[in-house]
């Protein structure tokens, strides 16, 4: 009897410890613990499991519905992994916003495997080639600073912790089976909107060095997709894709454009059109919606039966239920640095 009681108490204690660990990680942001505890919580979270990372480099506190959909869909596809959303507008003393004022923020905060952390670039860039560059640059006069700082931050965070980075206009539809990969936007051209690596991968270190050595904020994409492409060309000999096969070079996979870009950027409006039959996207892992191209502010409208509405209904049902309105109250997404 005593042994049975001891066993029962041991099992109960084990479950309690597991719950307390998860609760501590979640509460490290929700209750705004001191900075060093938040950082420790982040490192503990990302060091144990390969995370999915999103960034917001503006001061915006309320995510757009597209950002909410991107984060929710990743949490749904990767239920056993932490989905970490770094937000520059957050600090360790930020009070919890109300549900009515920030409904998307509150919705994402409540998802079990979604964790929101402050984005402290100075701390993030420590011990990387980006640190001295960041300390010297005058951000107030830089062109496209929100996008450039996002390009830099994604390199540093994946180099430090490993995992998968995604832009906030990427809707996940099935798990990515690769560990070290880049996503082709076109033949012999890489994007930087989705990529994944194990921690301290030398390719990302070389990318950060090249970022600093060839820094030019006047050239759009120079620190982003152009950087990834020129470094990949140094790393391996690029060839054209054959049918739907991915390319492999050393220990990096260069994934076919169909994996993330089945609808190319000149055709981005097709996401907002009604299709006779919605495509299956059977060859894709996620869909990049090219929100940066949406300068005309096309909206996701409840009941429109557009492709994007159906994607929301299937892959981010909570966002669709709580944030998407009908024709008279349509919600449009503001452009952000992670929406390229």
Task: Write structural notes for this entry.
With 340 residues, this protein is α/β, with parallel strands linked by helices. The chain has a domain at 37-257: Spore Coat Polysaccharide Biosynthesis Protein SpsA, Chain A (Alpha-Beta Complex). The protein contains eleven helices and ten strands. The strands form two sheets. An eight-stranded mixed beta sheet has the order 3-2-1-4-7-6-9-8, sandwiched between helices. A two-stranded antiparallel ribbon has the order 5-10. The longest helix has 29 residues, at 2-30. The protein is globular and about 50 Å long. It comes from Cercocebus atys (Sooty mangabey).
Determine the number of helices (DSSP H or I, runs of at least 4 residues): 11
Assigned CATH architecture of the domain at 37-257 = Alpha-Beta Complex
- CATH top-level class of the domain at 37-257: Alpha Beta
Order of secondary-structure elements? HHEHEHEHHHEEEEHHEEEHH
Write a concise keyword list for the protein shown above.
alpha/beta; 340 residues; two-stranded antiparallel ribbon; 14% strand
Q: What are the SSEs and their pairings?
A:
Blueprint: H1 2-30, H2 35-48, E1 52-56, H3 65-77, E2 83-87, H4 103-109, E3 114-118, H5 121-125, H6 130-136, H7 145-161, E4 163-166, E5 170-172, E6 181-186, E7 189-197, H8 202-213, H9 225-235, E8 247-249, E9 252-255, E10 286-288, H10 307-315, H11 317-323
Parallel strand pairs: 1-2, 1-4, 2-3, 6-9
Antiparallel strand pairs: 4-7, 5-10, 6-7, 8-9
Pfam family, one: Gb3_synth
Subcellular location: Golgi apparatus membrane
InterPro entries: A1-4-GlycosylTfrase_dom, Glycosyltransf_32, GlycoTrfase_DXD_sugar-bd_CS, Nucleotide-diphossugar_trans
